[in-house]
# Entry
Amino acid sequence: MAKSRLIRALLWLLLIPAVVILGLGYWLFLQPPPPIPNLNYEEWWGDESLKGKQDTSVRPFNITFSDGMIKDLKSRLKNHVPFRLPLEGVGFEYGFNTKMIDEWTTYWAVKYPFRERERFLNQYPQFKTNIQGLDVHFIRVKPQVKNKEVIPLLLLHGWPGSVREFYEAIPLLTAVTKERDYAIEVIVPSLPGYGFSDPASRPGLGPAQMAVIMRNLMHRLGHQKFYIQGGDWGSQISNIMTVMFPKEILGSHINFGFVPSLKAMVLQYFISFYPTLFMEASLVERLEYNKLVLVELGYYHLQSTKPDTIGVCLTDSPVGLLAYILEKSVAATNLHNVKLEDGGMRSWRFSKDQILDNLMIYWTGNSITTSIRIYAESASKAHTKLGFHLLKSYVPTWVAQAKYEIYYHPPVVLRMKYDNLVNVSVLNEGGHFLAWELPKVFSEDVLNAIAAFKKLQKSKDEL
Ligand SMILES: *[C@@H]1O[C@H](CO)[C@@H](O)[C@H](O)[C@H]1NC(C)=O
Ligand SMILES: *[C@@H]1O[C@H](CO)[C@@H](O)[C@H](O)[C@H]1NC(C)=O
# Structure
């Protein structure tokens, strides 16, 4: 009697974990995906009064630093109140280290060559066109070639970046070479609400709705089929575009391969117990690195809930804007540097001018508030209900993984999202702003990806 009870108890003990494992397995791997949501491709985001009066022409545009704006900006930079010193022995753990403020504000107010940088920012042809009620700003560089196919590539930036991230990479990507029988045209838009693109007039313009706007922009320019490259929000928007428009997106290169589903997190959690069973041993340290980002994510909650309040502070103060964006840039470049007094900024590959160009785009466009609303829209019930994060992408995808990217997924997790993962290129340098920090490495990787996508397409066509 006692013996059979023991056996029964043992069986139950086995049964419970077996049911848990099978249930988890079903949930992770066998559950049918939700349907692809239908979005209104003509949804109007602009002022209601402009409906029906839309100017759909493509108009040339230049960035202008007006004298009045420069004068006001300099005065705000020079007249900031004194800041409290950081705690003893602290780097960036409590936020921007105020010992570093004056070095930057003085440079911005006194040495930043406004007119020269204005010319620099206007070196590529820029345009605006109205999509769904919003004027969308973009750079378009089209190589002039004969007897070569020109293929379009949409480059999507993120936050706290801008089109500025791609300036160094643009000539490398659009270079015409003998080896390639094609040339690349780049289209680099400011996301709605960023830089010189209009923000939405009403709630609801999240990454999925931006994906529609970006696709409509490409159609406006005559591109029914194209490649995409994206990092940060750009990669999330790219992911959605590949799900929504699988026949139009020829391939997607992303340098932020982040799978934002609970499933992916659960799988990654289990992998972390015996990582070498699932991934290369040399990359296990990147799982450790992932842990460093957790204490850096307070901004995410803030911007997902009350973007407009922090927006007031940053719109009114260029010093605040500088501290806020540079603190994020420290973490995004290398999370270890958060411990350093200078945040590693003095050994950055970025020059001060490069960094300030990006801030100038936010400041001149008065766009910090509207840029961070994407966090709130993305976190909204309406947006998560669409379920794009649960849907697989079947478009050929190439993921570049910089060494100091803020989050690392091993390929087995990436495959949960990317059914057609052409390659994962593991880089031994660089951070979250790959195009900006390492334009050569970035461009080569993108060009390799496009060559691989084209080869795949060719072999498919021959079948
Ligand atoms: C932009 O600037 C260039 C160079 O100064 C000039 O040739 C062009 O006309 C300007 N375009 C617009 C739309 O202002
Ligand atoms: C994948 O990327 C790596 C690193 O960039 C490269 O060495 C390799 O050739 C690529 N593989 C393919 C199939 O393109």
